[in-house]
Amino acid sequence: MIDVTGWQWLNEPKSWTAGDALNVRTDPDTDFWRITHYGFIRDTGHVLAREVSGDFRLRTRFAGAYTHQYDQAGAMLRIDAENWIKTGVEYVDGRQHASVVVTRGLSDWSVTPIADADQVSIEIERSGDTVTVRYGVGNDEPTTMLRLAYYPPAVPTLAGVMCASPDGPGYTVAFDRLELTTG
What we know:
Number of helices: 0
Distance between the termini: 23 Å
Order of helices and strands: EEEEEEEEEEEEEEEE
Mean pLDDT: 96
Strand order of the largest sheet: 1-6-15-8-9-10-11
Number of strands: 16
CATH topology: Jelly Rolls
Strand content: over 45%
CATH class: Mainly Beta
């Protein structure tokens, strides 16, 4: 059961439900990106998050019906519109990729192809000034390290799940795990 009590939306989608899973239908023309390579700024993707300070671990598991270029789902940390990290699955050139975008004024993006999977798990762990991103495919726990990045240590941040459809008409994603532990 996904309990969203105490969680808040940034860019709430038109269609979503919470029960056994958090089911979201992404709105079209949604994304998070800042300038690099493409020259535009987008801050329209969907995020369901809680504010946390200090060290924490966020874990989620999700399945998406990705169909269009850059359909994406996963997890996000966000201080403000210019400082954030998003990670998860991004659908690029007809394949699923494990993806991380780190933004500090400008976005940088890294991807690695993964086998198309029914489900993917993501873990973001913040310890001091470091964020470690791990993933797992299928029923695997998120144990494969994808990225180690700087993240300001003492700043309150939103931590939660995200999804977006930059180029397509929208798609459906189901998050059946959403855990945020602090300390």
